[in-house]
Amino acid sequence: MVNPQIEGKTYPRTASYLVGREKIREFAKAVFSKDPANLDLDAAKALGYKDLIAPPTFAVVIQERSLVTVLADKEAAIDFSRVVHGDQRFIHVRPIVAGDELTSELKVASVKTLAGNSMVTFETQIFD
Description:
Distance between the termini: 35 Å
Shape: elongated
Strand content: 15-25%
Low-confidence stretches: none
Helix content: 10-25%
Number of domains: 1
CATH topology: Thiol Ester Dehydrase, Chain A
Largest sheet: 3 strands, antiparallel
Radius of gyration: 17 Å
CATH class: Alpha Beta
Mean pLDDT: 95
Order of helices and strands: EHHHEE
Number of helices: 3
CATH architecture: Roll
Number of strands: 3
């Protein structure tokens, strides 16, 4: 069982992550993106961006760095072998662009028990 005392806990910001052009291309291909601005620099620039823009779900690459921190926290007592991903939402204020240096900060929004299992909700913010 996950320690319910971690509800409300905010973990420290991660080290910065430099978003690479090739990382965006690799991710875009992996998710079968058809958006030319994810793959072609000229297409991204034609839309007014300085470099390739990442597919919206690329944010998970940054978020994962925060998740590693909470999973390593012995106090949290999260057994990753029992984790089932239930839901995920992204709220973007702007696209992630190649060349961005981003950090993330994770907060444990809630810890609930359902049918003898823990359900944990995380909120992760990504910062320039």
